[in-house]
User: Which sequence fits this backbone?
């Protein structure tokens, strides 16, 4: 009889639910630890960690290297684009000097990405890339393009995480010097910078959530499809919250990185436009590009209508493909370097030298 009463008591049911969730969390943690232990016995985690660091840097620099190469390979078209944007009133630059903008953008991106990849003056390179990301939407009149701005903010978040790591490592080197300071602050600026990076990293996912919810409430999906989308969006909200507060953020970031990497090849196949030619130029693709370009597509290529549309679509998809790769790199950076001490995962992490030596530094 008492069991029946307890089963009807809302408080008892809630306590059982909480206990069950705790047990499930413990099981997941136990399985994860077992997998890590098994991997450590067969894989050199130090070497894998370093390779993952290198991969993350390559991915986050992908959009900058590709854009710099684009500036060089299609210099005349890029100058024409900047001139058209300037004449439309988006840029206070004389048309005769617009070529300087293209040259400057190529140099800044190439030098910044090169510094990060070659590990030479990394701080300056990382800061220059962050500054470029802040200017880029205004330079191409993309301020109202929510997808472009949100993904740019996510890339900035990844760069902030990388910059946080670089500043922390510089502090580590100074502390290890005989003449360096004996103690470092418990909550340095690098941890606050990493916290800012985690918040910015979720910008694209917030935009994606808002866009999906708007389409669901607009009745663009059938009931079952809308229900699945709603469940996935709730899962996305949980994952973003986990990244922001720093709770199991490494695993969440790595999972999101895998999902985004796979979806990138599905939704932005720029090579497909080159393979099939103008047969793939449809009205929907034309509208998708028109919403992101402030100028007429025929101006960009100087060719006939179908060719200019094909070039604009392929160029648009190629840029977003590499920008999505940089977002994946930002997530991998979070998985590699961690959320910092302003988080639930590492609130009382050890001092910086011990923490980085524990990550596998020889």
Assistant:
């Amino acid at each position: 009889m008492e069991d029946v009463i307890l089963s009807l008591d809302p408080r008892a049911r809630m306590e059982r639910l909480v206990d069950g969730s705790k047990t499930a969390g413990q099981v997941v943690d136990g399985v994860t630890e077992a997998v890590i232990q098994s991997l450590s016995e067969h894989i050199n985690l130090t070497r894998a960690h370093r390779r993952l660091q290198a991969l993350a840097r390559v991915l986050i620099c992908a959009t900058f290297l590709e854009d710099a190469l684009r500036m060089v390979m299609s210099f005349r078209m890029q100058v024409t684009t900047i001139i058209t944007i300037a004449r439309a009133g988006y840029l206070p630059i004389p048309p005769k000097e617009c070529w300087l903008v293209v040259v400057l953008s190529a140099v800044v991106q190439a030098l910044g990405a090169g510094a990060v990849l070659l590990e030479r003056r990394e701080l300056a390179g990382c800061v220059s890339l962050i500054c470029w990301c802040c200017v880029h939407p205004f330079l191409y009149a993309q301020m109202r393009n929510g997808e472009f701005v949100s993904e740019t903010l996510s890339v900035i978040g990844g760069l902030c995480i990388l910059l946080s790591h670089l500043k922390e490592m510089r502090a580590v080197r100074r502390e290890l010097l005989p003449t360096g300071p004996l103690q470092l602050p418990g909550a340095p600026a690098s941890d606050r910078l990493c916290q800012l990076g985690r918040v910015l990293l979720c910008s694209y996912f917030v935009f994606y959530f808002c866009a999906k919810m708007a389409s669901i409430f607009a009745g663009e999906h059938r009931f079952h499809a809308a229900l699945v989308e709603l469940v996935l969006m709730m899962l996305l909200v949980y994952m973003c919250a986990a990244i922001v507060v720093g709770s199991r953020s490494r695993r969440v970031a790595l999972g999101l990185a895998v999902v985004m990497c796979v979806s990138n090849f599905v939704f932005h196949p720029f090579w497909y436009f080159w393979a099939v030619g103008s047969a793939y130029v449809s009205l929907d693709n034309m509208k998708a590009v028109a919403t992101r370009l402030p100028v007429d597509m025929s101006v960009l290529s100087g060719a006939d209508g179908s060719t200019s549309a094909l070039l604009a679509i392929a160029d648009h998809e190629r840029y977003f493909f590499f920008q999505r790769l940089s977002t994946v790199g930002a997530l991998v950076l979070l998985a590699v370097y961690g959320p910092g001490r302003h988080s639930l995962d590492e609130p009382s992490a050890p001092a910086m030298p011990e923490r980085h030596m524990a990550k596998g530094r020889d």
The chain has one domain: 47-170+186-343. The chain has 17 helices and no strands. Confidence is low (pLDDT under 50) at residues 2-7, 180-186, 294-306, 350-362.
